[in-house]
């Protein structure tokens, strides 16, 4: 558990008036300039443009009742709303470009789809929602912990979300950065818990985070939303936060200048959480990958788990 970031070239001192609700600003730690999260946003936008270029709706859609949306955009116009209400490409184009599809991953050995799917989006609404959330969540984390740790959390959480999604949703394709986003949310929660002593507004920060997480997971139970990717990404990020986002406990910095006090840098519970989270993370990802490539169906092992991704009501069916 290192006490300082290994990244170089983006470090600056914190400003005295830089207030943040979730983080303690009184410590002497450095403050990193965020560049990775903006780069990820730009990359996602570029990939969406490339997908729409390949999609070329006017060339593939014919008939008076199958008009492309926003035809003035030419080959970048969107599929008919009955086919894709999110203003985006066709399912076949997404599949061609690397969407997560269980049969191709397991039977055609295209495991790379577990990662490529997190760079694709079903439509402009899906893309903007995820990118705005990424900016809101990710930039602050990168400023606090640097691009290497936040980048690892983003990518590994996306992988964890893809694994769980593939185990439970095997009849449809899945795209989006939501698993990685939920990983950042999970890391924020575990960072708060493991660094509990340095927070001034502990209860308020915890309640706020839990509320945000609960609302987002509840929305994932609506139809056409891959909540298994959300849950898998969240659990992966939650474990990674205990491993990668540990900070010295409150009072350690002051004890270094006081020869009569010798406070340990990390408390015992931080070490315990670090070890437990690391073991759970490695075992969970390993078991998930083994089950996936053996062709296991998660629904056979958990009869009620399908309700986590879509809960049927009188207003909709799953």
Explain the overall architecture.
Serine protease involved in intramembrane proteolysis. It is found in: Membrane. The longest helix has 26 residues, at 268-293. It is built from 13 helices and 2 strands; from the N terminus they run E-E-H-H-H-H-H-H-H-H-H-H-H-H-H. The chain starts with 10 loop residues before the first strand and ends in a 17-residue tail after the last helix. The protein is mainly α and 318 residues long. It is 54% helix and 1% strand. It has a two-stranded antiparallel ribbon with strand order 1-2. The protein has helices at residues 36-55, 57-60, 91-97, 102-106, 113-116, 124-145, 147-168, 178-194, 202-219, 227-244, 252-255, 268-293, 298-301; strands at residues 11-12, 31-32.
Supply database-style keywords.
318 residues, mainly alpha, 13 helices
Strand order of the largest sheet: 1-2
The counted number of beta strands is 2
Distance between the termini: 44 Å
The helix-and-strand class reads mainly alpha
Main sheet properties: 2 strands, antiparallel
**Mean of residue pLDDT values:** 86
